[in-house]
Amino acid sequence: MNPVPPEGPAPATEPDLDRDWPKPDHVTKPSSSTPTRHRPRIHRPGRRKATTPRKNLALWQESLILVGTALILALLIKTFFVQAFYIPSGSMRDTLRDNDRILVEKWSYWFGGDVRRGDVVVFDDPANWLGEEDVRTTTGPVSQVLSTVGLYPTGGHLVKRVIGVGGDEVACVDGAVQVNGIPLQESSYVTLPAKACTGNFDVTVPQDRLWVMGDNRDHSADSRVHTGDPGGGFIPVNDVVGKVFVVVWPLDHWTFLHRPGTFSDPGLDQAAGLVSGSAPLGLALLGCGPLVRRIRRRPPRTED
Predict the structure, then answer these.
(1) What's the pLDDT at 289?
(2) pLDDT of residue 189
(3) Is 103:246 a contact under the CB 8 Å cutoff?
(4) Which three-class secondary structure state does DSSP give residue 120?
(5) Which residues are catalytic?
(6) What is the pLDDT of residue 280?
(7) For residues 228 and 232, what is the distance between their CA atoms, to the nearest angstrom?
C-alpha cells in the first residue's frame, strides 16, 4: 500500500510564458511561417539609439551669420526693389527740400517699363552735372559702407522731373513749357519762380532719351543748362535708377509723390504720334499707284 502524500501547497514550477501569462491584444507571438518584415517589433526597455550630440555655435559666430544675412538681404533689396537717397540741394523745391530722405522704387521699370512724363526720377551722372550744383556726399567709412548696401541714404546722383520722352518736342513759349505744342499746367509743383521757364529753347527728344527739369526752375542745372554738351542735355533712359515715390524724413515732410494731372492729357500722346501714326497710311497710299499700274500692264490670260 502506497503512502498518500500529505495535503499541502503544490511545488513551485517554472511558469510557461506562452500559456500562463496574459498577453496584450496587440502583441502576438510570431510564428515561423510569418515573414520577417511583417513581424511586430517589441519594445525592449533599456536600449536607446545612439545620437550624436548637437554642437551649438558660439555667440560671435551666430552674430556674424545674422549680420551677413542682413547685409545680403539689404543688398538684394537695394539692387532690385527700393533704394534710399537724400536730397543735397534745392533744385527740386518745393517738391523735395534740402536734406530730405527719399525712397526710390525700381519695379515700375522692370522688364522694359517706360519712364513716363511727370515722373520724378533719380539717375546716374556720367556727364558730370553735379559740378553745376551745390551737392554733398556721404563722408566716413561707416556711412559709405552702409550706403553701398542700401542701409544709408546715398548721394552722388541727380533727381529731376521728366518733362519729355523719346519723340517729344519740348519748347519754352512765353514763359510756359510746351510738350508737343500743348502748354503744361505746372502750378501744382513749380511754385517758386514767376515763370515756368525762361528763354526760347525748342528741342526734339531722341529715342531712348529724356528731357528733365528741376521744379525749382531758377536754381536747377537741368537739361536746359546742358544743351551745348555732347549729349545735348538729354539723359539716357538706361541711366535712370528708379522713380521717387515717398519722402520718409523729416516727419513733417512725409509725403507720397504722384504724377501731376497735367501729364495725363491724352493730347500729349496724340500730338507725339501724328507722324508715326500716319506713316503706315501714307506708305499704303504711295504703294497703290505702282500696284494699279502693274495690274493694268499685265497681259490678258489666254485659254488653251
Answers:
(1) 47
(2) 93
(3) yes
(4) strand
(5) 91, 160
(6) 37
(7) 6
- Of 162, 184, 156, 147, the closest CA to residue 92 belongs to 162
Q: How far separated are the first and last CA of the chain, in Å rounded?
A: 146
Band the pLDDT of 139: cuts 50, 70, 90: low
C-alpha cell belonging to residue 179 = 510738350
Look at residue 240 in the predicted model and tell me its pLDDT.
92
| Nearest-angstrom CA–CA distance, 184 and 273 | 18
Q: Where are the alpha helices (DSSP H) in the chain?
A: 59-80, 141-148, 266-272, 274-297
Buried (b) or exposed (e) across 20-55, using 16+ Cβ within 10 A? eeeeeeeeeeeeeeeeeeeeeeeeeeeeeeeeeeee
> Is the model's pTM score more than 0.85?
no
Instruction: Give, in order, the Cα–Cα distances in Å from 215 to each of 23, 98, 159, 240, 302.
Output: 92, 13, 10, 18, 76
In the predicted model, is pLDDT for residue 43 greater than 50? yes
The full length of the chain comes to 304
pLDDT digits (tens, 9 = 90+) for 208-220: 999 999 999 988 8
